[in-house]
Amino acid sequence: MPRSTKAAEPMLVPESVSRQPQQGRSKASLGRMLAAAEKLMLERGNEEFTLQEVSKGGKVSIGSIYLRFESKDNLVRAVIANELERIAADEATMMAEVVAASADLAAFMPRYVESYAEVLRQHAPLLRLSMQRASFDPLVSEPGKQRAFRSEEAAVAAMLGYRAEFCGNRHEQKAKAAFHIIFATLARQLSLGSTGESASLRDWAELKAELGRMCLTYLKQAE
Amino acid sequence: MPRSTKAAEPMLVPESVSRQPQQGRSKASLGRMLAAAEKLMLERGNEEFTLQEVSKGGKVSIGSIYLRFESKDNLVRAVIANELERIAADEATMMAEVVAASADLAAFMPRYVESYAEVLRQHAPLLRLSMQRASFDPLVSEPGKQRAFRSEEAAVAAMLGYRAEFCGNRHEQKAKAAFHIIFATLARQLSLGSTGESASLRDWAELKAELGRMCLTYLKQAE
Amino acid sequence: MPRSTKAAEPMLVPESVSRQPQQGRSKASLGRMLAAAEKLMLERGNEEFTLQEVSKGGKVSIGSIYLRFESKDNLVRAVIANELERIAADEATMMAEVVAASADLAAFMPRYVESYAEVLRQHAPLLRLSMQRASFDPLVSEPGKQRAFRSEEAAVAAMLGYRAEFCGNRHEQKAKAAFHIIFATLARQLSLGSTGESASLRDWAELKAELGRMCLTYLKQAE
Amino acid sequence: MPRSTKAAEPMLVPESVSRQPQQGRSKASLGRMLAAAEKLMLERGNEEFTLQEVSKGGKVSIGSIYLRFESKDNLVRAVIANELERIAADEATMMAEVVAASADLAAFMPRYVESYAEVLRQHAPLLRLSMQRASFDPLVSEPGKQRAFRSEEAAVAAMLGYRAEFCGNRHEQKAKAAFHIIFATLARQLSLGSTGESASLRDWAELKAELGRMCLTYLKQAE
DNA sequence: TATGAATGAGTATTCATTCAT
DNA sequence: GATGAATGAATACTCATTCAT
């Protein structure tokens, strides 16, 4: 793809890039082509595979792929969209569990950092591909932004559940800042944004601990 | 490049990817080809240009390019290496100025965050390319890590200059954590890691302020 | 079709390319597919359409098309054959009227040229497609020749009805020549043979008049 | 080609579709690719060949073809343009000879018909391809029209050289009509416009004779 | 040194035809 | 009879790299 995309519906749910609701045999073959494509994307990179390979690996004909997807680009987007849906679900579950288990902010913050890190870590490989692609494909970046915004809302809401413990009065603002800083730090450590210069701190576990501590101190003690 | 790299010398100084110390006319034409390549990379992306275009834009023959660089990949790496050197220089200057102007940690932290953000912002476009490429090219990611490590050392040293004000006794560890968190947050906000999901906080200026405040509180008050 | 044709029955009546005498619903759907194909052929060219499109436009399944026609080629031939039948009918009617209305050769010739031109003009679009296809498909060119031969016979017979006025004694030969020249000139002017270089005479009406005059003079006065 | 063409310079001289004036080895390889393409076009039809085949047959690399021609379409156009130039030259020579050898119109007309028929016959195969292509490619049809117009001018001028013998006073008009009728008849007989329904007159030699006679009678005796 | 013409492997996409239902 | 999902062969074009001059 020469780094440009057509008109474009802004949503990246699997339905917007795939073609028809499938069932039975069709659904199975759709699954096989998505799985084959995902495998290749993870091994080689977002676009570094051929449809020939997907056809072979997924035991589907080339024509079948074009029956479901308008283009190779849309196949790539579908793989990403699928993963983003799984992540959103995991994130929601995680957040509910963390809130339920945390009596106060001091319990919440480290647990949240740790759990969020784990969710991201589990999905890191495809998340990385998703973010790489988002850097030039609006059909991926737009819905990605939506999703990030909903993550922020959920996290901010959870923190504000402990607002009685907050210091100062810019509660929401501070919660937002905390979320951004947490996400940025975790993403970087998991090399989501890129691989390059991350992971130089000997102890990643340690950074997570400091991150929780920092946010806790910030929310409770910064004016 | 199909995501693989040959032998691979681990350094990415301009000399390791370029061929020989140039002089006079040769040096000028080397400059023109680097400038032409950089322009194209910024306009289109890391590899989305042809050597034909570099040849035209830089008024150098294709043969000349291969006289200086073993491959197109090495040309790309040289452009990146050049920029990384400029960044390192700017960063060192910036750090010296910030330290000189800051009497205590409360003065240092916000000024450092602000100034570092500015340095990164100025170099963001090529830095973005550099990080994209680092995600699959060890010849870019390895030296990138080195450079990041030196940035960390400098920042940690600067913060430790104010260690008397630190709370607790894990001084170095906390300084390292602060640096990581600052860098990750700034990088993300500048879309260095990718573009996708960044920049959802209304006020980027505000995030920088919070970031400084958070680190300050953390260093001075977290046990 | 890569310019080759199988076995090949030499007739191109609709029955030879279609499969069975249809009736009721089937006949209606046959009509719809022929109409849809004709529409597409006129819009885009002889083969520049897909069966998918015929299926959609004619509200018939792809399978249905293959139930009636052995191949896409035969569908195209059927569209052409249908049109050729319509033309033959129009031509016969036209000829009868012209003869009935013409007392002598001086009345007949211009009227015939004019009327024949009108018949060809009305059918020009499909006639053009027919002739394009005939250039490489014997299944179209062979029956086309038959039809042209019958046109010639009818025209020659009509002219010979006025043989008393002919000069010289190679009556039939001259009538044939006149027919050929008339047909060739009209066909060219209507861009039947191709589009290219036709229609450069300012006044097409004028050319028809000259054509009639020329043939009249030729038949009555050439030795 | 999906039957549409870009902006388009209206001329179809070899220079407008080819890329650079060649010399030496380059010129030879350009010649080989044109010859190979022409051979394939004559065997199969205008576009019914692959560049792979041209590469093999002409002993040139695919890349070389694209070095000379922007597209396969332009290669086809170049083959046609070359032939059109040769035809124009032959036609001019022929016309000069015919005029030089003809004392009066009675000598000129049959000789002209005969000679023009011969020129067209010699070039018939490629001329046929040219006209087929012209039916949908303006880059071929436009210059084709120009060329036809110049043919008309030359023929009309030649006939008017004998205007003293003309009857009536619409001299130019009649000469034009005669040319059109001659060209149309010859073209049709040579199956230039298509193949289909031509050549049904037993004796093609005879038709040419009648054609000459008809035009002669027309010019000298039609009022 | 310097040039830039020549090379040719590699790949997304279309669409006539088949055949299980 | 009717359907339309599945098949997969076939092909124009790009561009990094080489090497004769």
From TrEMBL, chains A, B, C, D:
Protein name: TetR family transcriptional regulator
UniProt biased composition (Polar residues): 17-26
Region of interest: Disordered: 1-28
Keywords: DNA-binding
Gene3D superfamilies, per database record: Tetracycline Repressor, domain 2 (1.10.357.10)
MF terms in GO: DNA-binding transcription factor activity; transcription cis-regulatory region binding
Keyword Transmembrane: no
Superkingdom of origin organism: Bacteria
Source organism: Sphingomonas panacis
